[in-house]
Design goal:
314 residues; alpha+beta; 4 helices; 41% helix
């Protein structure tokens, strides 16, 4: 836990309506100090990530504060200050218009501080700021070097009041008691974790959500295409069944027609047989009648040996 330092000053969390000035009329505790931003876009991105993530998962604005690049004045009446890239102060309501953080006004020392090392700031952050944060009683101090992805964690020893280096866990992370989060390295950047899960910045969450929506849309499109293909397959199957039914009906009709043809052929053969039989009967009848009409023992006129006195045959 962080050390709280009380100062003989106005009541904690009181907003200043009129800024204090020196004998020349210059504001003593301005917010636009030259060391209030890390150099370069990538270190600035890291600081913004920490600030945004703390406000999304840790800070309750009515009770806590997290600020980025806000100067902390630690000696009233002087311009001595330090500008952590990000710091967390529990018990101090967040003020979006705050220009600087004066310890004698809040009465509360920030509990957690982050520094993102940039070109030219290594010695200041590792040596000078370490000593100052140690003297102020800031419980946890983390610094991260983006170029090498090196993360260091220091914690205040309550017995000595000095910082001691911490050892990372098996995953290379440090648990922050002040934040109830783990601090580690995610790919090439500093990362905060809850329950072992990386807390991505909003842009990554948006990109992930868009990717999930795109994947869902693609899955729906694939499902629609599969359903359409299934419908086409069912239609082709139904058409094939109908065609098979028509083929079976034509085959049955052809068989029936062949049966009728065979029946007609058989009937024609039977009729022909009956006609032949009738003709043979008629022929036999005619022959028999002819034989009956022919005189017995007489030949026809002109036959050799015929009786000349016999009457002619009629």
């Amino acid at each position: 836990m962080g050390t709280t330092r009380s100062h003989a000053a106005p009541a904690p969390n009181r907003r200043r309506d009129r800024y204090e000035c020196d004998e020349h009329g210059r504001e003593l505790y301005p917010g636009d100090v030259e060391d209030a931003m890390p150099e370069g876009n990538w270190p600035r991105w890291q600081a913004n990530y920490l600030f945004d993530t703390l406000h999304r998962f840790v800070v309750i604005p009515e009770h806590d504060s997290a600020y980025a690049n806000l100067p902390i004045y630690h000696e009233r009446g002087t311009s001595k200050h330090v500008s952590p890239d990000v710091f967390f102060a529990p018990g101090v309501p967040y003020e979006v218009r705050r220009r600087s953080y004066c310890l004698w006004e809040s009465g509360i020392t920030p509990q957690v501080v982050f520094e993102i090392l940039s070109r030219g700031s290594e010695v200041k952050d590792r040596v000078a700021n370490r000593r100052l944060y140690e003297a102020l009683g800031i419980a946890e101090y983390y610094w991260f070097e983006p170029d090498t992805c090196r993360l260091e964690a220091l914690e205040l020893d309550p017995a000595t009041g000095l910082y001691r280096e911490r050892t990372a866990d098996a995953e290379g992370r440090f648990f922050s008691a002040g934040l109830s989060l783990h601090v580690g390295v995610e790919r090439d950047r500093i990362g905060l974790y809850r329950g072992g899960r990386y807390l991505p910045p909003p842009a990554e969450l948006l990109a992930e959500a868009q990717a999930l929506r795109a994947a869902a849309e693609e899955a729906r499109a694939d499902a629609e295409e599969a359903r359409a293909e299934a419908e086409r397959a069912r239609a082709l199957e139904a058409a094939a069944r109908a065609e098979a039914e028509r083929a079976r009906a034509l085959e049955a009709a052809a068989r029936a027609e062949a049966e009728r043809s065979r029946d007609l052929e058989a009937a024609a053969r039977a009729e022909a047989e009956r006609a032949r039989a009738a003709a043979e009967v008629e022929l036999r009848s005619l022959r028999e009648e002819l034989e009956r009409l022919r005189p017995s023992g007489r030949g026809t006129p002109g036959d050799a040996g015929a009786d000349p006195s016999s009457p002619p045959f009629r």
